[in-house]
Amino acid sequence: MTLNPGLTLREAADTDAPALAALQGEVWPQHTTTAEALLHELADLRAHPLRPHVWRLVAEEAGEVVGLASVHQFPGMFHPDRYHADLLVRPAAQGRGVGRALAAALEAHLDARPAREVLAGTQEDHPRGLAFLARHGFREAMRFFDNVLDLRAFDPAPWAEAARLPEGLRLLSLPELIAEQGEDAAWRAYHAAAVEAREDVPRTGEATPLLYGAFRTRGEHPQFLPAGVLLAVTASGEVAALTELYADAADPARLNTGLTGTRRACRRQGLALSLKLAALDLARRRGAQSIWTGNATTNVPMLTLNERLGFRPRPAWTEMKRGEV
């Protein structure tokens, strides 16, 4: 297609990471990132044993990055014919054909693969983005809430009893478990619990096995907080349940929840609630003012738990799908 005068498209380079982090912050200010985090995630994809496909195209005007089209495959939900597509355009550059040019290049790239299933999304309060995806053949597959707790308004006193783990279980952070078991054994216990807990996390496709080597790389992520990994540990050293807190890329007063879950044999004992309360206590002691967590709208147990604690939903992320594998 003919590009607007002054608009150029080119393959993204690693040196674009600062500009791409800034672009994401402009488009999705509630989900900012850093150049360091983007480069770490890109390195993880490139090094993953599944060899997921990664393609990124930037749009420039007068030498300034104003948009990004990307296609990649998530190792956690991998299928050789399933792809995830993203398209970002700076708000100030919208309405000048940047999105159309990137979308055309993205579609050509997907056609060349070819892609049998493509996932893409936007927030439910972005009607322009939803309409754009609908015009390209996408239909809603699932919604995910950002749930936010204002720690300044949270009163832990009524939760004192629920915060106690059942007899026979201890609350340990990942560094404390490493001190007891050694680094590899502790990470393997953490991994075993995460593997089982994530099996019941709602998603738009089947989960891919969580390989131990790939799991270990999360410890190198710039926002990873070892002390924020809280574990319910049995007398034999097994991890029965876990919750994770990550630092935020831009807001030091905000923490983000990763996976919270309980192994099947240990459920219905209130372990997830106890660990969430321990995480809230840790967050308060660290000086955090808010905790953000993401939940699929179909994950009723976790949504109910978070609502009880005072988390309140923000506009949902609408995951949309075209095709099927």
TrEMBL record:
Every N-acetyltransferase domain range: 7-161
Keywords from the named record: Acyltransferase, Transferase
Pfam families linked: Acetyltransf_1
GO MF annotations in UniProt: acyltransferase activity, transferring groups other than amino-acyl groups
Xref: CDD domains: NAT_SF
Domain of life: Bacteria
Protein's name in the database: N-acetyltransferase GCN5
Species for this entry: Deinococcus phoenicis
